[in-house]
Amino acid sequence: MKNKDLAIQTIGLNKSFGTFTALEDLNIEVEPNTVYGFLGPNGSGKTTAIRLLTGLSSPTKGISCIFGYDSFARDMKARRIIGYLPDVPSFFSFMNGLQYLTYCGELFGINHQSAQKKAHELIERTGLKEATFRKTGKYSRGMKQRLGLAATLVGNPKVIFLDEPVSALDPIGRADVLDIIKDLREHTAVFLSTHILNDVERVCDKVGIIDHGNLIVSQNVKDLKKEYAKKGFEIKFTEDPSVILHIIRMQKWCEGVSCSVCEDNKYKLTVNVLDNAKAGKELLQIITQSDLSLVSFNTLEISLEDVFMRLARVR
User: Fold this and answer.
1) Rounded average pLDDT over 185-207
2) Which pLDDT tens digit goes with each residue over 236-261?
3) Helix orientation angle between 112-125 and 97-107, rounded to the nearest 10 degrees
4) Are 169 and 126 in contact (CB under 8 A)?
5) Beta carbons within 8 Å of 184's beta carbon, 6+ residues apart
6) In Å, what is the CA distance from 47 to each residue of 28, 32, 84, 244?
7) Which helix (H) or strand (E) is 144 found in, with range?
8) CB of 89 within 8 A of CB of 167?
9) Do residues 242 and 257 make contact, with C-beta atoms less than 8 angstroms apart?
10) In sequence order, which ranges of 154-250 are alpha helices (DSSP H)?
11) Which secondary structure element, helix H or strand E, spans residue 214, and what is its range?
12) How far is residue 253's CA from residue 21's CA, in Å, rounded to a whole number?
């Protein structure tokens, strides 16, 4: 059943090309003012899903809605409230950045003076000030990504679709754009398609993991990491802790232990356990009795990459 309060909603969304199924029974719900990370390897169906959600392609079957509006109905009410940045945006090469964004504003019915003012604001916001009057045909790929992001914001959309928005950016540019995306949640919902797991972990509230056209999971990032959290500890020492490896391996709560040397020449002990509470207390006792110089003692952290690899292996 369609829910007008959801920024994005899909029900049993499918897309096939002949005998090949690119997307199968996609069911997702994205709340307003949320950054939703759509995560998966290249070829997993991410771009296909975005084309369906934005109405650029028709489904084999299923429903896709933007605040209750049918994505496939070519309804102008739906199109006016979305912004879309493809993975490889293209522009009129004879226009400069200011002219292009002004033109986009006029397409939304904004008068020329207001559209130009908006264009200047977006150029400043996306870090393109030095290229304001440069022809877009001479923009680098990273600059085109920034201009494309600016163009998606011209109409003050309620939902923004970003397909691999930082893939062409250097580390500084990537950080800048990710900060912009985080800020966007104050006024809009963002659907961020990417294969870069660290980016999703940095900016997203919720994540959907897709593989071979199938949605594996769609869940709050914190809850997902908590559900698949590792049990164990990462312990650093000044001296080689080999003397306590045998003692640790003998404990009933120990599932495995390994030792390595860090770049700072400290020794790192990774201990996987069945029960953090019991193991943590007894590990500290073992370390105290060994007279080793303890540098740090931390529980193991899990990343979205760990979660994705575990779920992909299950499939």
Assistant:
1) 88
2) 999 999 999 999 999 999 999 999 99
3) 130
4) no
5) 35, 153, 160, 190
6) 15, 21, 12, 51
7) helix 141-153
8) no
9) no
10) 171-184, 197-203, 221-227, 245-249
11) strand 214-220
12) 45
